[in-house]
Specification:
By secondary structure, this protein is mainly alpha-helical. The chain has helices at 14-20, 26-39, 46-64, 68-81, 89-100. The longest helix is centred in the middle third of the chain and has 19 residues, at 46-64.
């Protein structure tokens, strides 16, 4: 029996991100990615490229979570119907600060 190498997909690989993202998100990712690649031609721009890839890798991961799309669709439907429960921003911040005490 021979050992097979473990295949690892880097979640920050642009090809992985593109494959996972929904079609509607791909042009936005590509525009930001291309801008970051151009900026990375200079050493100071490298951090922006890594920031863009890390952020989009997280977004792509979110889309792979079971039930995520259905949850978003349900929220959109509730918003359109006027039944989406929401909390004003200042109340949400106050509640979070209180929870952290």
């Amino acid at each position: 029996m021979s050992a097979q190498p473990i295949e690892y997909e880097d979640p920050q690989d642009p090809q992985v991100i593109l494959r996972v993202l929904p079609e509607a998100q791909r042009p936005v990712f590509l525009a930001q990615y291309r801008d970051a690649v151009l900026a990375a031609a200079e050493p100071a721009g490298y951090k922006e490229l890594t920031r863009v890839l890390k952020g989009w890798a997280h977004i792509a991961w979110t889309f792979t979570q079971p039930g995520y799309r259905e949850s978003v669709d349900a929220d959109v439907a509730a918003f359109k119907a006027g039944t989406l429960r929401s909390v004003p921003f200042d109340e949400a911040i106050a509640a979070e600060l209180h929870r952290r005490e």
